[in-house]
């Protein structure tokens, strides 16, 4: 998959045409879901594709922001065995499916929910796994205009260069507010990121979708080490934070592997003291 292009064109769709996905495309998405990359290889995941009539009314009032369920022709229900980091893994896997769908012209949107047991019960699922994700799928009613994201200009870049570089990052924080170098709060500048071939991977990670568009991730660069932290706040729960983290890891990894090198996320705390504030938690780190 061409991560750059797919990420650049992707956005959440809440308004779907009353039209089912054609059989060939649906099969491609299902086949991808069966074999798609995982963040943690040995976590068993089971993805069920269900149609509007089996899901919408059952979950309306229960799933979605304030219980507002998204009305879509299809849904992917992600089920996972419960193991360390299974929610981050679900974010990574689920968003992989959204990107694949997007590549095939199919729009998507994550739908939040409170409790796995209720979803299993309401959807009549027979499973020994936990529900870890609900994703709406279908053809969007209208195309959104991709607008320029906010990135402050770096030394050697003209405004036009920056516009080109940041196209697609609509409604996102500027890169400098998300990426720090050496110490917490020390904002990364575009030239340094470009010299280290990290501009693109960071700029695309910045475009990751997140619950309520909170953009809770901050990246810290320490030499060749990249550390991902995620904010813990009252607007969202731990599940949503972990899904958001998994998605950001996929975006960063997908893009850096296309341009620079393979990476392996280590899902554990880091030793060094970077002055990370209390409300941020280290999720993972990797070497580039
Ligand atoms: C874990 C997660 C849960 C979400 N839940 C909902 C939801 O219940 N309803 C909704 O309309 N959008 C939901 N979204 C979509 C986000 O609001 C959206 O990704 C964000 O506002 C950024 O917009 P964009 O994806 O169009 O760039 C969710 C996104 C994530 C990652």
From TrEMBL:
It comes from the Bacteria. The keyword Cell wall biogenesis/degradation does not apply. Keywords: Oxidoreductase. One of its GO terms (molecular function) is oxidoreductase activity. Residues 5-253 form the Putative nitroreductase TM1586 domain. InterPro entries: Nitroreductase-like (IPR000415), TM1586_NiRdase (IPR029478). Belongs to the nitroreductase family. This is Nitroreductase.
